[in-house]
Amino acid sequence: MLLMMVVDGKNGNKWPPQFELSGAQAQVVLTSPYFLACTIPIAVGLLWTSFFARRNKIPEQEHASMVWWLVNAVWFHVGCDLLSGFFQVMPVLTELYAHMSPAHRQPRWHEARAHLDSGYALELLVEVPLAWWVLYLFATRDPARHIAEVFAA
Questions:
Q1: What pLDDT is recorded for position 58?
Q2: Fewer Cβ atoms within 10 Å of its own Cβ: the N or the C terminal residue of the chain?
Q3: Closest to 17 in 3D by CA, of 8, 4, 26
Q4: What keywords were assigned to this record (predicted)?
Q5: Chain-wide mean pLDDT for the chain?
Q6: What was the pLDDT predicted at 12?
Q7: CA distance to 5, 6, 12, 35, 50, per residue, from 18 (Å)
Q8: How many CB atoms lie within 10 A of CB 86?
Q9: Helix (H, G, I), strand (E, B) or coil at 81
């Protein structure tokens, strides 16, 4: 998330990367409703998992799994890939995705980026629900949580 605030997205194809340190880009990111729609649930979820793990004496490894599935679902799948790569609304990351793979400059489902959009559809329809399901299984202490985690990973 810090990279979004300091790596210049407009010049993302230069090496070494250019930095934007005036704070203007950070302000755009920090006030973006898309960024906030991801970071606020993560912050609340991290507080909840911490209290939940302490209250229920959850082993450290299981608490770490809960944190991973929360952040994986909300930030990596939704915030990064769906909002930056597929819908292209996340500030700065959208530009960085276009620099990493120029096919992102084409409209959704254009033949040059269909392979990317297929992966994004898989994330939206399969991987995000699976991540939430695994987190739910850990929260309910379901005995199947470990097998489900292996399946979802």
A1: 96
A2: C
A3: 8
A4: Membrane, Transmembrane, Transmembrane helix
A5: 95
A6: 61
A7: 12, 9, 7, 22, 37
A8: 20
A9: helix
Please choose, from the candidates 73, 4, 64, 65, the residue with its C-alpha nearest in 3D space to the C-alpha of residue 42.
Answer: 73
Distance of alpha carbon 73 from alpha carbon 69, whole angstroms: 6
Query: What pairs with residue 7 in β-bridges?
Result: 19
Structure tokens, 57: 């004496």
End-to-end CA distance of the chain: 23
Q: Give the chain's residues under pLDDT 70.
A: 12-13
Structure token digits, residue 62: 């299981």
| Predicted pLDDT of residue 21 | 93
Per the DSSP assignment, residues forming a β-bridge with 19 are 7
Q: How far apart are CA 111 and CA 103, in angstroms?
A: 9
Q: Two tokens at 124?
A: 């939206």
**pLDDT value of residue 28:** 96
At 91 the three-state DSSP class reads: coil
